[in-house]
Amino acid sequence: MLGKGQNLSDQMSLMVKRMRQEVPDCLAAGVVDLATGMLLAVETTDAHPPEVLDLLAGATLDLFQGRTVVMIEDIFKERRGVASGEHYFQEILVNSANLTHLFIRNNQNTDVVAVVVCPKSVNIGMLFAGARRVVKGLEL
């Protein structure tokens, strides 16, 4: 479990390292802060240009808090009589031609999203189980 005694940067770095160790076939892991749109930590098997990593943070922000996504959440809340600021979209799985990308919100701080990238051949159940276990271990 990641401890409260560590600073946020240390916690994010440790979470990324644990993702790389505990999620099967993990090629890359990162943490995005939706409040600032910044990539807080990243570790990958390949070198990527900084602009690609910057775009990852922006794309994650759009996935979870883009205008249309917020509109959908607001409509669901209105129709169901929900008055909280809770977000409906907690996890998003994206398959590209060769890769599977999993985006998971942190339960304690919904502005923190973990991103895990694996080959498309990954066992999806094991991917979710490993990533959820690591994210749940983060205490903010």
- The helix-strand sequence is HEEHHEEEH
Strand order of the largest sheet: 2-1-5-4-3
State the helicity in percent bands.
40-55%
Shape: globular
Number of helices: 4
Class inferred from helices and paired strands:
alpha+beta
What does the main sheet amount to?
5 strands, antiparallel
Overall number of strands: 5
Protein name: Roadblock/LAMTOR2 domain-containing protein
Which short descriptors sum up this protein?
Beta-Lactamase; 140 residues; Roadblock/LAMTOR2 domain-containing protein; 5 strands; five-stranded antiparallel β-sheet; 41% helix; 4 helices; 24% strand; alpha+beta
Topology:
Blueprint: H1 8-22, E1 28-33, E2 38-44, H2 50-65, H3 67-80, E3 91-95, E4 99-105, E5 112-119, H4 124-136
Antiparallel strand pairs: 1-2, 1-5, 3-4, 4-5
Organism: Amycolatopsis tolypomycina
Protein name: Roadblock/LAMTOR2 domain-containing protein
